[in-house]
Design the sequence.
């Protein structure tokens, strides 16, 4: 039986009168590299903060690596890296490593020091004086030194330049190859996720719009383009519709459609799939609680 890294049932989080996440039911198999995508305010950070115990849910159930998650608990098998790469800026790198060793039940100092040595990041350097890419690498080294079974990264490369992004992702995937942990990675750059991830979750307005193995999702969806009168006769679940005068473009989920002779059936890439699912949603991003 496949181990489930994260399981949620009806999970929801409300801030005052607004739901940041609602009725979220997902299962993430262990060992996958998961891309978590959605616009700002979709609920990505909320889901991640709930998963690592930084927030408590308003409703629903949440299990991580088989255990119920409770707020303010230390999850020794989980490592978390936020988009700010939060560290003490006045600490030197070796002091951050010492803090990591003292604060974590399980710690492999060699992993951190070897990775930083490979990147020519001096252990006596002050964290606040490092470049953005170097700080990100130090934060990732700290996370990996825990040897986590689940690694959660919330927009870890959002503030980095293209070269630093590439170096960061290379380090991450090398770590994944060394230790078969589950990785959950949020990013706005879908093309980047397509190269790294094998599992996808699309969130919008706090709802799960799409979830599954990326290869399976791409196989299940097709884009059909042709005259409106022929395209409208296609059977299957129409996820997205775009009218172009007397022609129409449809994203269809299910078996490959068999349209009329004037229609063209095209494969869909990940970026197009995600964007079409998101554009089916209303523009408002967070729902008000019913009075």
Sequence:
């Amino acid at each position: 039986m496949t181990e489930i890294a994260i399981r949620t049932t009806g999970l929801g989080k409300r801030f005052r009168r607004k739901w940041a996440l609602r009725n979220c039911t997902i299962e993430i198999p262990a060992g996958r590299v998961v891309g978590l995508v959605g616009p700002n305010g979709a609920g990505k950070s909320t889901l991640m903060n709930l998963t690592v115990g930084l927030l408590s849910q308003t409703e629903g159930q949440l299990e991580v690596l088989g255990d119920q998650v409770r707020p303010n608990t230390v999850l020794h098998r989980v490592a978390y890296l936020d988009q700010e790469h939060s560290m003490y800026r006045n600490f030197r790198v070796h002091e951050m490593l010492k803090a990591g060793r003292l604060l974590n039940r399980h710690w492999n100092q060699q992993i951190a020091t070897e990775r930083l040595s490979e990147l020519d990041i001096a252990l006596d350097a002050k964290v606040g004086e490092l470049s953005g890419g170097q700080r990100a690498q130090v934060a990732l080294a700290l996370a990996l030194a825990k040897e986590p079974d689940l690694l959660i990264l919330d927009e870890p490369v959002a503030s980095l330049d293209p070269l630093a992004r590439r170096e960061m992702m290379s380090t991450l995937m090398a770590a994944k190859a060394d230790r078969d942990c589950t990785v959950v990675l949020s990013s706005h750059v879908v093309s980047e996720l397509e190269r790294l991830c094998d599992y996808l979750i699309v969130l919008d307005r706090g709802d799960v719009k799409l979830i599954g193995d990326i290869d399976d999702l791409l196989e299940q969806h097709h884009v059909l383009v042709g005259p409106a009168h022929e395209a409208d006769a296609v059977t299957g679940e129409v996820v997205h519709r775009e009218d172009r005068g007397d022609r129409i473009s449809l994203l269809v989920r299910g078996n490959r459609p068999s349209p009329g002779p004037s229609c063209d059936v095209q494969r869909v890439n990940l970026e197009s799939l995600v964007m079409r699912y998101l554009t089916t949603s209303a523009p408002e991003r967070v729902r008000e609680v019913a009075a």
Summary: The two ends are 44 Å apart (CA to CA). Residues 162-178 form the longest helix (17 residues). DSSP finds nine helices and 15 strands in the chain.
